Structure formats: structure tokens, C-alpha cells
Amino acid sequence: MQIQENNGTQHFTFVSKVKPGRGPNIRAKAAEREKISWEETDKLLRPLTIHYARWILFDNDTRFIYYASFDTEIDKYLDDAARIFAESGMAGFFPDLEGFPDDPASAGDAEAYRKFLAEHGVESFFQFEGYPGVTVEEIKKALKVRNAFSNMLDEMQ
To answer: pTM, whole model, 2 decimals?
Structure first.
């Protein structure tokens, strides 16, 4: 598995082929997920401690890239992701990718994700982080303090 660390933040990227004809299915899932509020998505994905995640369909929706940057260890990330997929009923895009089982039960199987990432992970050769060594929770806390301070100043006017 191509897991890399930069200043305490873990990250991985994988590239996969899309199962034939499944590109529209992936886009439909993404459209449904866009309807979920940021707050609901944040609450659902909070255990993953994601700094940034990106999903990309390309080559006429026949190939797929996923990139994630997060604070936790990879095994915890994958265990939490499998649990989230199983509990939410949203298997993610993995079942639409070649090399991942079609079986709905695989959505809750962290080992299926480990195997898939081991087979499809790619190594990046350079990365830049705007906030090295700072966790997602520290960033959220700093934003709360900033907002509280800003609100206090607004009330003083």
C-alpha cells in the first residue's frame, strides 16, 4: 500500500479502472451526496479526520482517482471508513471500480479496502501542505475562536 506521511499527515492516492458502464452510476451517487449538507457530511466522516479528499473520473468515465489526506493512521482510517459505509448504507464508489467486490457486504469489510489499496495505490513524488503538523481538530478549534472573536467585535460596535 502506498501510504505516505508528511509532517504527521497521512495521505494516499489510488487509480483504478471503472467497471464497464458504471461511470454514470458513480456520477449519480456523487449528485446524491452533493444534496447532503456540509454539517451532516462532516459529522458522518469526522472519524476519518480528513483534511482533503478528491474523487476524479476521467478518460470518458472509464478511470477513477481518489486522493485523501488525513490525520489518523491508515488502519484506523480504513476500519472507520468500512464502519461508516456499513452503518450509513452508502458503500462509496468502490463497488463500481474494477478489483473491488460487487458484494454489498464488502462495504463493511476493511480488509477488502486494504487489498484494493494495496493493488491500486500509487506513490506521489511531491506534496505541499499549507498547514503542516496541524490536525483537523486544531484547525476547527482555531476557526471557532476566530468566529467567536469576530462576533464579539461585531457586538461591540
So the answer is: 0.84
